Amino acid sequence: NTRRELGNLIAHRGMVISAGPEGLDAYPQMKDVSESLQQRLAAKDPEAEDLLLMAKLHLNLGKDHEAEASIRKAQRLEARATIKEELRRALFQALLNQARKKPDSRVFQEALSLALTQREKYEVLLHLIDFHQAAGKGVQAVRIARELALSNPNHFIVLKDGRNIRADVWLQNKIGNIGSESQDREKIVEMFK
Q1: Among residues of the chain, what percentage have pLDDT more than 90?
Q2: Does residue 25 sit in helix, strand or coil?
């Protein structure tokens, strides 16, 4: 883990070497880390830190179900508070990735229960709205959209692409979009009377 800016990168003998303004840094390549980690996990009882690292590797490779399995195993072990928070964030990401690839209401709900920051909650709710809209559940999509817009203390919605839009404008556009596709138009109109 580094917060330093990377410089010019060179791959050499299983390492990525960064030559930057602050000096040289060397990082092991993912393949070598993965092999070494698998050997450690096979040789002894796993530690939460090793399982977390394996989960992060799986997330980077798009193996969200494998990441979830490693995280859940790590959560059953004793771990420091900082590791527990990293496990929560990694599980949140694994679940959200799974729900994006194959929308599932249960997975969205579990991700929402793990969301602690406003940004995490927005991210789940925006995807959940799209999920209900695509499933033809216009009333549920509008209910969640309305809740999201009204719960926003800054009166702005942060979209999936990072842009900010005023909550009232977003809600009006979203309801219009959902209403035009939904067979529940009358029920949606009734929600706002």
Answers
A1: 32
A2: strand
